């Protein structure tokens, strides 16, 4: 099956003064994904971005810079904690439910990720404070990474969305051993589509990401550069980081049930049982 999994950054200006630029726009149900939508916008100081949600929820992640977010009832001022994701500290986010309109104001230059999934049950708008984001260290040997759990499955404040950040140092693999979550057969495995938004430090770096299914109907290995997005409609999806570079990616997951239950590739699961 031939699918376009790797999406390169673009630049589409909005507004008369070009204060907002769309870097990525991947609408749910208009790509190869059915449950996950994703957008990245760059905002100049003072710029505003407004969006009316319909049957979808959104997690607004302040990747860098400072923003103010309002939904007509609540306003969260000057949120965001870093000028680069590679400060490696959690950031602030805002969850907005379906059938609401939100407005983002850039208090300073900012890059913002908008993470979407279908939703038909309205929930309260909520600020996810940086200090409430769980930090987790996973793996050992050359399989180590740090995870920021922005919107994990154990927190009931969303209908479908799961959102995490992952930092991986050079010489390590991440999302490894290869695992997948493309079958709706709980409790063994949940069906979750996924997007990976990548950044690299230094920016001229690259990582390798493979996406493959058991039957190899999808089997693609990509050289992923700074600012790229990889779509994972199904299959295993490990990431390898070359020496000398640090990898950051933002994961968005969603599916018919809000549970993250993955299945390791049996050919490589032995790696977990080393002494």
Q: How would you explain this protein's 3D organization?
A:
The protein has a seven-stranded antiparallel sheet, with no helix packed on it. It has a single domain, classed as Jelly Rolls (Sandwich). The relative contact order is 0.18. The chain is mainly β. The chain contains no helices and 26 strands. Helix content is 0%, strand content 49%. A hairpin with a 6-residue loop joins strand 21 (206-212) and strand 22. The radius of gyration is 18 Å and the shape is globular. It is an enzyme of class 5 (isomerase). Belongs to the isomerase IolB family.
Quick structural overview:
The chain is mainly β and about 280 residues long.
Furnish the topology, listing elements before pairings.
Elements: E1 6-7, E2 12-14, E3 20-26, E4 37-43, E5 48-52, E6 56-64, E7 67-70, E8 75-79, E9 93-96, E10 101-106, E11 110-118, E12 126-128, E13 134-138, E14 145-151, E15 162-168, E16 173-174, E17 179-180, E18 182-185, E19 189-191, E20 193-201, E21 206-212, E22 219-225, E23 229-232, E24 239-240, E25 246-254, E26 263-264
Antiparallel strand pairs: 1-23, 2-3, 3-4, 4-11, 5-10, 6-9, 6-11, 7-8, 7-10, 9-12, 13-14, 14-15, 15-25, 16-24, 17-26, 18-19, 20-23, 20-25, 21-22, 21-24
Question: Which descriptors apply to this entry?
Answer:
single chain, 275 residues, mainly beta, Jelly Rolls, seven-stranded antiparallel β-sheet, glucuronate isomerase activity, isomerase, 5-deoxy-glucuronate isomerase
Query: What CATH first level would be assigned?
Result: Mainly Beta
CATH-derived architecture: Sandwich
- Our measurement of the CA-to-CA distance between the termini, rounded to an integer number of angstroms, reads 39 Å
The major pleated sheet works out as:
7 strands, antiparallel
Radius of gyration: 18 Å
User: Looking at this structure, what is the CATH superfamily?
Assistant: Jelly Rolls
Kindly report the oligomeric state of this protein: single chain
Strand content: over 45%
**Count the strands?**
26
Count of alpha/pi helices: 0
């Amino acid at each position: 099956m031939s699918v376009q999994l790797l999406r390169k950054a673009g630049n589409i200006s909005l507004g008369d003064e070009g204060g907002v630029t769309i870097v990525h726009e991947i609408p749910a149900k208009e790509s190869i994904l059915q449950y996950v939508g994703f957008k990245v916008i760059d905002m100049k100081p003072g710029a505003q971005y407004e969006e009316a949600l319909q049957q979808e929820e959104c997690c607004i992640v302040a990747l860098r810079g400072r923003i103010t977010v309002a939904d007509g009832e609540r306003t969260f001022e000057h949120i965001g904690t870093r000028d680069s994701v590679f400060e490696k500290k959690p950031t602030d986010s805002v969850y907005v439910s379906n059938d609401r309109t939100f407005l983002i104001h850039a208090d300073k230059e900012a890059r913002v990720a908008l993470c979407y999934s279908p939703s038909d049950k309205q929930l309260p708008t909520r600020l996810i404070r940086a200090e409430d984001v769980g930090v987790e260290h996973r793996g050992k040997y050359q399989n180590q990474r740090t995870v920021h759990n922005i919107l994990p499955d154990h927190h009931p404040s969303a209908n479908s969305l799961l959102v995490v950040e992952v930092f991986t140092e050079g010489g390590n693999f991440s999302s490894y051993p290869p695992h997948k979550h493309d079958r709706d057969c709980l409790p063994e495995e949940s069906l979750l589509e996924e997007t990976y938004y990548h950044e690299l430090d230094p920016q001229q770096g690259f990582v390798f990401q493979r996406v493959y299914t058991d039957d190899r109907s999808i089997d693609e290995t990509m050289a992923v550069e700074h600012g790229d997005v990889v779509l994972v409609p199904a299959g295993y999806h490990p990431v390898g980081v070359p020496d000398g570079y640090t990898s950051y990616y933002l994961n968005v997951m969603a599916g018919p049930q809000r549970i993250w239950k993955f299945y390791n590739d049996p050919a490589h699961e032995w790696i977990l049982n080393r002494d």
